[in-house]
Design brief:
Thiol Ester Dehydrase, Chain A; disordered N terminus
């Protein structure tokens, strides 16, 4: 089983793969994100008193001033953030991500995508178990990677999830997704989610491939800031 990395044979060279090594700035952003992710969870479950919470809020305000600063050393390399970094499910620079760790299993036509994840309190739905919306979002990510193995860029057209057993918090859950069939622009996928030997959920996904020029336009608009918050 191999990790997702440059040359893995996926369809989005700057989307699902990293073309360059992380810079020191990138690594610093990953470390910051890890701390923010810890803060999200600990602030969610804390039993600290009013004084401690107010002090923590003051520290967060100071941190916000720093990250909103535009000051940078002239020799610093620009951040090379790609989808792997900014994804809301697996992004190492996105504090909203769990994160979901992705890898490729198998070779040739027998390849599949494996996603490993441990959900904690902020993702809770039924007591002690994962919210069904996050289970579905995980399938969208894993099956999206699986359809990339077809070598054709595509976006989610339909996602169907069948819940078999509640998925518990605090333990490793394993997604597995495969591309099953391609008919014209339609790319069909299926996947499972297990906790050990227990099947928690199953999913099927339909993805619609796009022309290369359409995907190129989306990337261009993103790089030009067309899709960003005007603030």
């Amino acid at each position: 089983m191999s990790e997702i990395k440059p040359g893995a044979g996926l369809s989005f060279p700057t989307f699902h793969e990293r073309s360059e090594q992380m810079s020191q700035l990138d690594l610093a952003r990953v470390e910051l994100t890890n701390k923010i992710r810890d803060l999200i969870r600990d602030a969610f479950i804390t039993s600290a008193g009013l004084d401690a919470v107010q002090k923590a809020t003051d520290f967060v305000s100071l941190a916000l001033e720093q990250v909103r600063s535009n000051e940078r050393h002239p020799r610093e390399v620009e951040s090379q953030m790609v989808f792997l970094d900014r994804s809301p499910l697996m992004g190492v620079m996105n504090a909203l991500s769990v994160p979901l760790a992705m890898s490729i299993d198998g070779t040739g036509d027998d390849r599949s995508i494996v996603g490993r994840v441990t959900f904690t309190e902020p993702y809770e739905g039924p007591p002690g178990h994962v919210h069904g919306g996050y289970v579905a979002a995980g399938f969208d990510e894993v099956l999206g990677m699986a359809q990339s193995l077809s070598g054709r860029p595509g976006l989610t057209g339909n996602l169907s999830v069948t819940y078999r057993n509640p998925a518990p918090l605090f333990v490793e859950l394993v997604y597995r997704g495969v591309c099953t069939e391609i008919i014209g622009r339609k790319i069909f996928t299926k996947g499972t989610l297990h906790h050990g030997d227990v099947l928690c959920a199953e999913s099927t996904g339909l993805f619609l491939s796009m022309k290369p020029e359409v995907m190129a336009r989306l990337f261009r608009d993103h790089e030009q800031g067309t899709l960003t918050d005007p603030q």
